[in-house]
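Researcher: Let's run the pair from yesterday's discussion. Sequence first, then tokens, for each.
Model: Starting with the first of the pair.
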Amino acid sequence: MLHPLAGRKLPRTLRAHNAARLAAVWPEGVKSADYAQLVARIDTGPLHCGDRIEVFHAGADAFAAVQKAIEEAETEVLVETYILKDDDTGHGLLNLLARAVQRGVKVCVLADAAGSWSTKRKFWRQMENHGIETRLFNPLIGRFRDLLLRDHRKIIVVDRRIAFTGGMNISNEYGSSISVEGGTVWRDSHVRLERSSAWEMAVVFNEGWVRAGGIPLRLTSYQASSAEPPRIMVLDSRSGRGHQETASILAVTMAAARQRLWITNAYFAPHPGVLQGMCRAARLGVDVRLLLPGKSDMPIVRRAGHGSYATLLASGVRIFEYQPAMLHAKTLLADNFVSMIGSSNLDYRSYYFNAECNVLILDAETGDGMAKTFTDDLSHCVEITRSAWSEGHG
């Protein structure tokens, strides 16, 4: 079943502010056994152990892995995405899925109606004509109060054994091998999971599928047998479920960082509590760095994030803006041990209205890889210094 349950009231001791106070006193921080125990209490979901992980920071690599998994699918392919465009990448996926149906594979596609608003009806009809079951989440002509509630997840599950999630939607600019906008593609991150965490992704997909009018999947229980690293927790949320828990786990992770807290985020307009958590960590000597877009498809959000720069810089947070292309990744790294990869931005939409999916990974090897990518990205950034910012915005 889903974790946490809908309607659950997070105990006061586990809410962001109080949980962060608990984490602040652990000498070993995120590497302490207390960290894993606390995040499990907050989310109530399982920590999957021994699953295989592969992280992608280039769209061409991620799409190649997705293609291979779908080509080898035997029983089922589930696709949930915010944006599915009828461009070359979208048609490439359509052809892959159509061939899977011909082999007898059940295929379900769920796309958000707002995110995929530009996709023509002809494309959806082509999917249905090929035997692909399709649903649009919260159509734009419907109940007004539902218009703010969007499905921002990016999930692909194959045979409930392999899953992909992260920041990449399905369109050319999100990183297919097709070059766009002057020869560059957007910089994003995605992750491939195998074994029990992939099974849980199917449970998450089923929630959105049913809410969009799809027939519920037949889900059986899955018991992981391994006790080996890495440890993975699926952090999924929607309006009315899971947002408080995700915010609390973010607060705990920031409070438990002891050496470094490196955050990459595409749409940065943080809640005051998140801002305070980053500033507090920096004042305590943690190397806090923010990697943010130097250019954005949502300039108003970028300008909103600028409103917090003075406070962050005054506390010792280092801010870098990525220059070569649009930065769309949503990741976090604490002490090269805890990594978070997913669809959530540090803005109000992600933490109040959107359905989101992130994975929390407790693993030093994955953390080292994330650190290398972050360092590589910094070589393509301009650092925003306190003095320069004061001069330009004083």
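Model: Moving on to the second of the pair.
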Amino acid sequence: MKKKFTYTGLVVLSTIVLVYGCSKGYDMTATPGNNMAANIINGDMAQVVIQNMTLMPDTLSIKMGTTVTWSNMDMVMHDVTELNGMFYSNNIAPGESYSYTFAGAGTFTYRSMYYPSMKNGVVIVSY
């Protein structure tokens, strides 16, 4: 009986994550590690989804002044830490998000400090 409950709970939780993600406009069919284009809204916002221990997209090219939002669609806690100390999110709980506005141009590499085996993300900011 316990295995059935665990399986049922997993199915229910997966359904909730899928419905939540679709309702927020996330591409729930994206494959991990690809360089798909960011979900750009009004030209000044971009979205990175953390799901299945990957960043989607893992490389993001934006214009200066764009706000990037990282949304945690995993079932575990994550953080977003820029390697040179430019930004740090603190804990991002499952279903929560963190946003940062890029005021200057440059290339910014970031990672989840909790999971060093995850591929680093890169934000390339141009004028």
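Researcher: Give me one sentence on the second I can quote.
Model: The helical segments are 2-23.
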